[in-house]
TrEMBL record:
Pfam family, one: Ribul_P_3_epim
UniProt protein name: Ribulose-phosphate 3-epimerase
Originating organism: Rosa chinensis (China rose)
Matching Gene3D superfamilies: Aldolase class I
The protein's required cofactors: a divalent metal cation; Zn(2+); Fe(2+); Mn(2+)
UniProt binding sites for a divalent metal cation: 35, 37, 68, 177
Membrane-spanning parts: none
Keywords: Carbohydrate metabolism, Cobalt, Isomerase, Manganese, Metal-binding, Zinc
Amino acid sequence: MGVAAKIAPSMLSSDFANLASEAHRMLKDGADWLHMDIMDGHFVPNLTLGAPVIQSLRKHTEAYLDCHLMVTNPLDYVEPLAKAGASGFTFHVEVSKDNWQELVQRIKSKGMTPGVALKPGTPIEEVFPLVEGEIHVDMVLVMTVEPGFGGQKFMPETMDKVRTLRKKYPSLDIEVDGGLGPSTIDIAASAGANCIVAGSSVFGSPEPAKVISVLRTSVEESQKK
Ligand code: DX5
Ligand code: ZN
């Protein structure tokens, strides 16, 4: 028995001017979660959206909003995002080494699901304490590109980290993000990823439902092996 497949289109690749209809389109096409990339122009050289946009979208959908915080001070975002209606709150380990316990505790106390993300160059050992602690995260997001932009090339060398995690934690939610699509899903799924973020491959396709279904089938088939 494996962990459930969650396919999460990255709304970064959607038409922001029509966010609600883009979200509805993805859900109708089979998305489990909506991946929301929050950037501060500091942790990464790009600026996207924050709590006000999450709040606006929340009025149009009850879907799980999987928020990926590419920001230097994630603690500052807990309260506003909880109020806005975020579901998952995934922060980066690179900026949370000193306060992750407080951060996880606050995220949970606000009713959100805590996750930790790591950049391609960050060793996997850095997230072990966050998974194993008494107060712990429920998901690890292994970045498969450098965070900041959609449409980049998948980095297969990050798969060692996914394999290590899956071996150590058979029932952990492991998310991959960056360059995922029909041509890269099999390597990620067989390494053990079950939560799949996909931006350009889904939004760039004339048939997003088909892409979502290919991603899901790959995760499900890998788990039977
Ligand atoms: C990149 C973001 C990703 C991005 C993925 O920093 O975290 O979620 O939108 O986009 P694709 O699937 O196009 O690589
Ligand atoms: Zn992301």
